[in-house]
Amino acid sequence: MPNYAYIILIPLLPLAAFVVLGLFGRKYLRGISGVIGTGAVLISVVLSLWVAYGYFFSVGKVDGVYQPVIAWKAVWLSFSPGLSIDMSIILDPISVMMIVVVSFVSFMVHLFSLGYMKGEERFGTYYAFLGLFTFSMLGLVLSGNIFEIYIFWELVGCSSFLLIGYYFDRPTAVAAAKKAFIVTRFADLGFLIGILILSLHAETLDFRTLIQRFTEPSPQLAGITSASFLGISLLSWGLTLVFIGGAGKSALFPLHIWLPDAMEGPTPVSALIHAATMVVAGVYLVARLYPVYALSDPAVLQVILFVGAISALLAAVIACTQTDIKRVLAYSTMSQIGYMMFALGTFHSGEEGALGYTAGMFHLFTHAFFKALLFLCAGVIIHKVHSNEMRDMGGLRRSMPLTHGCFLIACLAIAGIPPFSGFFSKEEILLAAYRANKFVYVIGLLTSCLTAFYMFRLYFSVFWWREGGVSAGDHGEGPASMKIPLVVLAAGALLAGFVPFSRLVTFDGAAMDTPGVGVFAIAPVMLAILGILLAGYLYRKESDRPRKAAGVFGVLYKLAYHKFYIDEIYSFVTKKIIFNLIGRPAAWIDRNIVDGLMNSLAGVTARISAGIKGFQSGRVQDYVLYFFAGIAVLAVLFIYIYT
Amino acid sequence: MNQVPLSHILFVSTALFFIGMYGLFTRRNMITMLMSVELILNSVNINFVAFNRYLYADKLEGVFFTLFIVAIAAAEAAVAIAIIINLYRNLHSIDVEAADEMKF
Amino acid sequence: MNLSLLVLMPLITAIVVLFSRREGGARWVSLTGVTVQLLLSFGLLILYWKERAAGSMGMLFEYRHVWFKPLNIWYHVGVDGISVAMILLTAVVMVAAVLVSWRVQSWDKEFFVLLLFLSAGAYGFFLSLDLFTLFFFLEISVIPKFLLIGIWGSGKKEYSAMKLALMLMGGSALVFVGLLGVYYNTGGAAGPYTFDWPVIAQVHLPVEAQRRFFPLLFVGFGIFTALFPFHTWVPDGHSSAPTAASMFLAGISMKLGGYGCLRVAVSLMPIAAREYSPVIILLATIAIVYGAFATMMQKDLKYINAYSSISHCGFILLGIGMLTRTAVMGAVMQMISHGLMTALFFAAIGMIYDRTHTRLVERLGGLLKIMPFISTIFVIAGLCSLGLPGLSGFVAEVTVFMGSWQRTGEAYRIATILACASIVITAVYILRATGQSIMGPVKDQQYYGLADATWNEKLAAVILGAGIIAIGVAPFWLSDLLNIK
Fold it and tell me: Whole-prediction pTM value?
């Protein structure tokens, strides 16, 4: 086995940047903190590409099948023999693909931020947090131990919290950061319990051993499937709970409410964390445990299939009505992640049953490029317009030609127009869905049409709609550090689809032929073009057509505009029920009943002593009375005893 | 011999005792209270003498005890009056109710 | 190594403090004393590792001297991994406590002397292998708290001092009865009555006696560790105490109880412990969940931390109650982690209060802009409290969860799940407090121009933070050290 130990540098370099910038970034390194952070990530990118090249093309394959490799391992915390949290690095096709994506997008965002965040007071802190995030995310994808992935899982959540709350003096940003953390924490609770269930029965925390024990006949598998709780086997419980953790991080319905709010963070952060990398962690997690899901418990996969499909459709519908550019992109992210998720859910045991796995991962890969590009373009636009609202924009195509071009490429990619990258991955997903479940396939088609519509709605509203556009305070499209990432990502969005993905990342590690798209692609592409044309009709020129169109949908439009009132339901549950019905009584009971009991114990003692001390009145005659009374009692006693 | 029966003497001493007790409880004047104490002591004295005479005529312990008590009563009266005088100096009163400083 | 040095050192320091004449001399002498003590503790750690590596078993560095022969009471000290860890914790917290008390104005000599006495009690308690000496040191570490809160406290300090002292005294009274019960059951065929821990551990107390005296000992020690429903001294006591006393109280004193429960109650009476464990688990789970919910509604930063301590100490009792090896190890880890974390939290709150003169969350705001250092340590303490990986809280909680999960039985599983659920509630209240007081807009114009931490405060925070991170990033050394049989 070749020596892979240097891989540990890939996550450690951003960590080092975090430590250095966190300690000294404020005072001493403020000027060069951006360069330090970016440089560290650049080395990570180079190393990741080197690793990927080495893994995919020279050493990863044994007998035509990609083998997982444990590149590095150390015991971190040992519970009992065989059960320990190890810090380990696993290399397999998906983790190698992910480190490339994560480090690459992270590098782009680091670079972009050099221009975008220039002049910020907490510039060094910003880069420190970015470094922390990159470290955690790289650690997450390289984890070879289920508890290790949980550790990094929490760390990405924390860095997401810190970065969303970067503008900490805005109450909305603070609220959004809190919401993101708490909602994902709630989901992580499911993940944690899922880990407890799975690990206890598997008697290991190591992914490879765990997967092996749960996919091949073994006493552990027998144990966990025979044990049940509420009529459902513990394996299903464990896997579902793990999936809930993934759903929270990946903003799937109904745990998606934090994602749109998370757009309060700086835009490059949204590009990195809330579009390209962290939010796909849930997909990655399911992919990591995919053999167990696919081979041992298809029922949970059905849950995943439908949760993914519902999220995809729901988010697409909401996205059609939003007016905040970043929120549209956020819902679009949610919708695309739903896509990836239901792709994973399409597993069936027939021929090419695991196509969904490849397709989902492929979509994750291409999505990272075009979605990061969309967000960075949005960043450039916001930088120029100083507003997130679509109605403050319009007609920007002349003043921002480069952004316009890149944005258009990204929109075409996400809409699934050939030959842009999104087309290839989406086709594979739809193909897999078609073979697995026709109903989900229809949802997929519908979502794909809606995606094209809302993306081009956004595109036309921002770049066309009215002529002239904003020109006041014009500083072009930003410095080169902001332009280069756009161009590079646009190239990625254009070309990523040509990566022979099904030869590299497959369920069993063996190469798979790219399924022919051909005729099958006609329906989705036509639908996408329909969506684009409709958007063009409504939004190309300033008119009141959109309002009329909204009127046609009436209630549905209103529902979608208010995001189906899911936020309101949540806030009702938390504020009214948890705070008022549980928290407040608990605090009250503690102060008044439990503490009251303790205080009344003391009070009773004090009152008794107050009663007794009255005997000590200070009056001689009282004492005389007690004296004689005592004598009398004693006399009676003596007489009683001696006679 | 025509003697006064013991019970008569005991009756006198008991009466004296309770008169003394009554005085001790009801009087507020310390001097009177002291006198009441003397009455109680004297009722005891009478008992000692009477029992000595009637039950153990050949012995003298009862009489001796009486003498002791008389002596102690004298000493006690001296101490008590000294205390009362001191109280009077501090409180300008010999009312026992006024001297209730020594409470809880 | 002569362990008595660890008890003597604070006492000697206290005496020197009493005789120090110059202005501010008391704090420098105290700082020197506690620093030497910290070095001694590290020395102990290294020696301990050496001895263990050489293969020594059982208690190390034992020393015994007769104290009161007729009752067979000995001064008997010795350490195992748990006591070494607790001593190290105490030393670290003491250094930080002295550093944050740098600006005690009135009666500073007396303040430091009492603080040092407290620590001497704690050191003695962790070292003692004779149950009577153990009790003696437990008492020593109660009385000075009353004075510290009553004299240097704030708010309704007399009430709190009284409440704390009375409830802890009640606890130690129960402990004493329990210890006597143990003592009078050691005699008979096995030899004379004895308070000696290693001897009693060999004796196997009669089951009847275990059943009778286990609850006394456990509840008695449990009161120190905020066992529900005897936890109500915690919020009042902590919030009224001066910063250093809060740090010591929450950081060390509450751990005396956990250590006592483990060392005396559970390890001497294993049969009763197993029988009573459902009750312990029930109470601990209530404390965890209910403490967390109660915290959510608090408005005063110190109350928030005090209530969260109830919830966190619930993990200690849960771990001990679950009785699996991993869970007990998690409980000890939680003691150490919570000791460091809560001390850091109280230090940060004290620094904020010194400057803004308020601890009410709704009146603070935007502190991150004004005092970045203090705010950062507040956030770190908060993140540790909500169990962020990389900080010690996570390691401890996860170990407790794993250990608890190993106990089979549906009710135990549900208790574990409820305990796990508290991490969400913890996140809610920590983030609420952080969001309102540290982040957000600056609420009061007067806060502009307030100074950030001074060197002594920074040093204190760094020492505690280093401990938290050292455990959080590399927990293996701690789990090696504890390594419970």
Answer: 0.88
